[in-house]
Amino acid sequence: MPTKITPELTIAQAAEITGTSAPTIRRWISNGELRAYRYGKRVIRIAYDDLMKLRREVNPTTFTKQNGGDSA
User: pLDDT at residue 25 above 70?
Assistant: First the structure.
């Protein structure tokens, strides 16, 4: 059975997707906030799925209240 392969991104590509800079991506990796993989001495790649795990909704309660959801 074939294994699912997740697309891997360069640091520059991850920065472009998130609207940040390469130093920010490197800082996230260094702080342990973003998982990255090293191939050889210089090549670093980030799994797209790992990058998307950083994505969080800013204020979900505001969205719910404005769109007729529960007033909890």
Answer: yes
Residue 4 has pLDDT above 90, yes or no: no
10 Å CB burial of residue 43 (0-12, 13-18, 19+) is: exposed
Residues 25 and 15: beta-carbon distance below 8 Å: yes
Whole-number Å distance between alpha carbons of 2 and 5: 9
Give the number of other CB atoms < 10 A from CB of residue 20: 13
Helices 22-30, 11-18: inter-axial angle, 10-degree rounding: 100
Q: Tell me the pTM.
A: 0.73
Report CA torsion sign: 16, 19, 23, 28. negative
Q: Is the pLDDT of residue 7 over 80?
A: yes
